[in-house]
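[INFO] parsing input record for Aminopeptidase N
[DEBUG] input buffer:
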Amino acid sequence: MCRFLLLIFWCISLLPIQSVAQSTTFNRFDSLRGALDINRTCFDVHYYDLSVKIDVAQKRLQGVNNIYFKTTTPTSTIQLDLYNNLIIDSVCYNNIKLSFKRDSNSFFVYFPSILSGNAFGNIHVYYEGNPTIAKKAPWDGGWVFTKDSLNRPWAAVACEGIGASLWWPLKDHLSDEPDSMRMHFTVPQGLMAIGNGVLESTDTKAGLTIYNWKVNYPINSYNVTCNIANYIHLTDYHVQLNKDTLAIDYYVLDYNQPKAWNHFKQVHPMLNCYEHYFGPYPFFRDGYALVETPYWGMEHQGAIAYGNDYTNKIIDFDYIIIHESGHEWWGNNVSTKDHAEMWIHESFTTYTENLLVEYFYGYDMSVRYLNLNKQLIKNEESIIGPLDVNYEGWQGSDMYYKGAWILHTFRNVLHNDSLWFSILKNIQTDFALQTIDTKTLLAYINAKAGKDYTWFFEQYLYHAKPPILDFYTEKIKKNMRVYYKWNNTRSDFSMSIPVNNANNTLSYITPTSDYKFIDVKFKNYNKNFFNQNYNYYLLQLAKRP
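[DEBUG] output buffer:
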């Protein structure tokens, strides 16, 4: 037991507790990336066919993206995105070169005539150049070009937040995912290039190998990945709880094959756990995969980036594997429309870690896991940021650890585990392969719960500080009178919380913004009167003298 907690604490101590600082002053680039104006809403992307030649020695890309789309309204102009350090050679439509204009890291494409509404089309964008190099992947993203321990090339990309347009041209907004996608990566012969989905074929000529990948499902643009190394391909399979056989692929550096086989055995019980809570693995036709990377990890759909040195820090589980795999449900299957609402990805996935601990080690241990995470909560900024600016400005990790605590708190507010777990599973079913926003998600939870909990979520998500319970005591004859109220909440905040009675039994009180009181037999009152809240609810206690 103690060893387990020490290992958890060690794992947590290694986690980033502060993100890369971002400016909260927004500019035109932020609006171009984050907002949906008429030049973006006028078309919907259906399919990308991306071809990229990667020169690992020169750290250079050369490629073309064939973008298939459908107009939603008549238009002669659309906005696409590509970082301005990359050169656009040409944009072609029906074998005609189109004019385009660059603006920051976006560009506007002008068609020779107005495209009618509900019209299908496709354009080719040819480009080349040296992409952004990551300063500290995956948090400060970009490409990583490095060497393995045998001094051989090793390259990979991570671009969550900073955007996929740092290495390929597309409509770079989370709300518009292609229905499917193909990728063709050309690399020097001898190296493998691993993308998302299913490897359809390879072609080798003139000292180069082309790896042709297909994604059979919608995919977040930042999840599109390319990993290049001297990989060895390991295959496995997993029989799901529904008896379907899921294909599993591991791409690891060739000299890591023995320890990879042993280390990745944990994938099977983990998948059983997640299927228990959330339903079957959501990308069955693409399969589940782990790809060894020169950075810690990332939730690349169907090709999860893994770089944690094959170490378990939670007894039988590797934090990177369980967290990034959790994103296959929370973030990849159910995805946010706006980067400011990434709590839909990160809060639910961090809470998923807690459910895994509960599944294998019991509820009490999961609460201890939550309490260890609680020390990382700063309460200095709201979890949801400003919309329409591709917001990345969080200074801490509250979206992760506080977000998990919010969900744990709501579970206790709901006080109905059967209902709570059905809501979690139904979210995965009813919003499968969709992008959603907070408003839609909360309306859904309210409907399933049969009660309006807007007061709860808006208090926790849009305010930096958790609810603060003010209280003081007064001795009256043989009783201790306990006065209590919320001092920083919405007027309709109505969360009931437990208090300790005689013999350590619980009863519930419902504070408001005005003082109420409860009388307790003096002999039964002690300083632990509110203590149960520490394990059940995210709040702060403030005792008046």
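[INFO] The longest strand covers residues 43-55.
[INFO] shutting down worker
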